[in-house]
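User: what does the whole thing look like in 3D?
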Amino acid sequence: MGILDIQNLSISYDGSSILSEFDLSVSKGEKILIKGRSGIGKSTIFRLIMGFGVRSSGEISLDGVPVDAENIWNLRKRVAYVSQDTDIAEGKVTDLIEEIFSFKANRAAYEREGLQRIISDLSLSPGILNKEYTKLSGGEKQRICLMLALLSGKDFFLLDEVTAELDVGLKQKVVGMFFDNPQWTVLSISHDREWAEKATKVIDLSGKVN
Amino acid sequence: MESYDVSVEGMLFSFLLLLIPVLISYYLGLNLISPTIESAFRMVIQLLFVGVFLTFVFDLNNALLNIAWVLLMIFVASHTVLKNAELKTGKLLPMLTLFMAVTNYAMLLYFNRFIINLNDLFDARYFIPIGGMVLGNSLRANIIGIENFCSEIQRNENRYLFRLSMGAEKTEALIPYLRKSMGVALKPTIANMATIGIVFIPGMMTGQILAGASPLVAIEYQITIMIAIYVATTVNVLLGVLVLVHRGFDEYGMFKKDLLRNV
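Assistant: Here's the predicted 3D structure for the full assembly of 473 residues, as structure tokens:
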């Protein structure tokens, strides 16, 4: 049994099948890249793991616990999911951080020292905390989302195209941050070669098309 | 002070005024002639009915009947709120009616007992018209609040999902939406309070002055009723949104799109 087990997962959209009988078992510490052409269901798999959609059939479990209505609220606290849509807030970045770490599940995880370190690791300027989130560039927004995931203290990450708007140097840096920690389990969806170069396993969904 | 009733002749002169919007609509091709006539006709029939019924209710002045009449008003108000916010009434109406009933009865009893110091708290002359004013004025805010909450949660669903994925409970993730919809809903009432007496003379005050009351008595009532309206509106909007928070999401925390009328 892995950290994440997916069995016979099928996804349909508007009556047509996108993905059928998809299996995946992820062990602790694995660094997996999921790739495939657009619209093949990569992001939908992540959404289903988080309980954000309806699967046609199949089973998903995290740490052996089925992803269902009863368990989903606790399971979400276990996973750090960064979606490709970075439109997550209005107001100042610092207010967003305060809000996210005011949630009961995150209060214990938040460390101010950690925040300064991660800001520096992600090559963000300290002044970014007082900027309006909506006025940041796409790359800055991606790094703020990553910063929040890193600050959450979790060790299982679902990262959906999180380096698409970063330059090459930063892409390598971010990949290293997530893939170099042997304790962390990471599933990444990306078209960037930096992830493919360091992944322990690459899953190409194109072979699963109906 | 002397007060004048509107005579039949005066009523006819009033209807004569409707020729102005009818003619404007005719010459500009606004297609508003039949809606104008239909609405004016409905207004007359509804007010005739209410006038006759309230005369009967006031004469009888039975506490239970008064409570029941206000409950009917609350039920119709809740239905109107959901309908105007483009929501199906089925699953939301009972809870919204219950919440609005608790707020509005509590406000009415407080008003009658502590503000105007009535002996009979359910006196029809106060209980029904004040109930109507509070409900009527909070109606628009309630529609705006619920409509804003639903549209924001759909337009900015990703923000909500992001918070859930960061470990938020449903209520924690919905607080930004609650804040925004309450802010939008309450702004007009706050602006109303700030401009009252200068920009407009409210209907209640006008009515009292026309009925012969001194303007000073009229403003006393207007101040207290305005506060009651604002308080009841705040609580009504809050509870209206909380009904959606409670009933509008499935067990995974996803917004139930089938609650929307156009789905």
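In plain terms: Chain A touches chain B at residues 50-52, 69, 72-73, 76-77, 79-81, 83, 85, 87-89, 99-100, 102-106, 145, 148, 152 (CB under 8 Å). The longest strand of chain A covers residues 16-26.
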